[in-house]
């Protein structure tokens, strides 16, 4: 198992290198200068030249590429151009935990609600129950996250006054309700649909009929036999949406005014803050790689066939 994880991590190195190369050249190909974007008034050419020299921006592009790459390998991305009093490492330590907690809470909510609702839709003998759950699933998948965020802010914040319309008062405050629900709605719908479909496919297989013939209790059959097999494709859905939420939360963070890593990325792109843009891209790429490895490990725990093939 450990060897497998190490191999997967090493296989992710080319992905990180390609991501670094693409974002480096795309960022530097953007017209303009970081000093123009970060100032409200024009900067004198002499001042701009001194800033370029201080931050090595007057060097040839390949020299800058090697310099950035060597620093990234050591985990040192240098100072931020937008906020030159802070290093990129300090920015990551300050803003990334907010995005991770926000995305983790949204995925946890989606899984804890999606699995029971998917099971209810698949096992219920009342068509109205199945239909209602399917409507929830369809609405969650079809509505973009930024639209859901805007609707919740207008309805809950402006209309009812239950939540703040903008700003952040902490993870355990009412200001976290709108962003968590907004991010959780799409994966909730996907988990419901995937788990419902998987249960419907599993419930008529031969090993389920055998378990019923042995006289096992219905709840035991559902939990220990049906759900475990139905979870395998659902894990894929959860992994895909977990990557999407962690990488794409900047929409919600920008609209709701959350001081997360995604919102800071939007500000960094507008300011042409190359070190922050490069660091953010690499961190998000690493998160996607780690999530994919975790999904494979969960396959190993859930599916005996995977364990036999591994052995």
UniProtKB/TrEMBL annotation:
It is found in: Cell membrane. PROSITE patterns: ABC_TM1 (PS50928). The keyword Transmembrane helix applies. SUPFAM superfamilies: MetI-like. The keyword Cell membrane applies. InterPro entries: BPD_transp_1_N, MetI-like, MetI-like_sf. This is ABC transporter permease. It is a multi-pass membrane protein. The chain crosses the membrane at residues 102-123, 135-158, 170-192, 230-256, 276-302. Belongs to the binding-protein-dependent transport system permease family. It comes from the Bacteria.
């Amino acid at each position: 198992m450990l060897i497998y994880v190490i191999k997967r991590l090493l296989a992710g190195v080319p992905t990180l290198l390609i991501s670094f190369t693409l974002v480096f050249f795309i960022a530097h190909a953007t017209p303009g200068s970081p000093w123009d974007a970060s100032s409200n008034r024009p900067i004198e050419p002499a001042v701009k030249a001194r800033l370029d020299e201080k931050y090595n921006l007057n060097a040839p592009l390949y020299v800058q590429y090697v310099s950035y790459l060597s620093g990234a390998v050591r985990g040192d991305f240098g100072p931020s151009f937008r906020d030159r009093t802070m290093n990129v490492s300090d920015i990551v330590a300050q803003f990334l935990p907010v995005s991770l907690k926000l995305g983790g809470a949204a995925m946890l909510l989606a899984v804890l609600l999606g699995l029971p609702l998917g099971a209810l839709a698949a096992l219920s003998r009342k068509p109205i129950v199945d239909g209602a759950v399917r409507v929830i699933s369809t609405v969650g998948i079809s509505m973009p996250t930024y639209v859901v965020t805007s609707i919740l802010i207008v309805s809950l914040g402006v209309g009812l006054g239950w939540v703040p319309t903008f700003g952040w008062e902490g993870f355990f405050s009412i200001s976290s309700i709108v962003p968590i629900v907004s991010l959780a709605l799409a994966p909730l719908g996907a988990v419901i649909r995937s788990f419902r479909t998987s249960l419907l496919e599993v419930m008529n297989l031969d090993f389920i009929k055998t378990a019923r013939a042995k006289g096992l209790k219905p709840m035991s059959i559902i939990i220990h036999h049906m759900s475990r097999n139905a979870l395998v494709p659902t894990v894929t859905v959860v992994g895909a949406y977990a990557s999407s939420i962690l990488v794409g939360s900047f929409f919600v963070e920008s609209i709701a005014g959350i001081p997360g890593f995604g919102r800071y990325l939007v500000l960094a792109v507008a300011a042409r803050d190359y070190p922050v843009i490069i660091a953010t891209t690499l961190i998000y790429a690493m998160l996607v790689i780690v999530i994919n490895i975790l999904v494979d490990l969960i396959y190993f725990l859930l599916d005996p066939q995977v364990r036999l093939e591994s052995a």
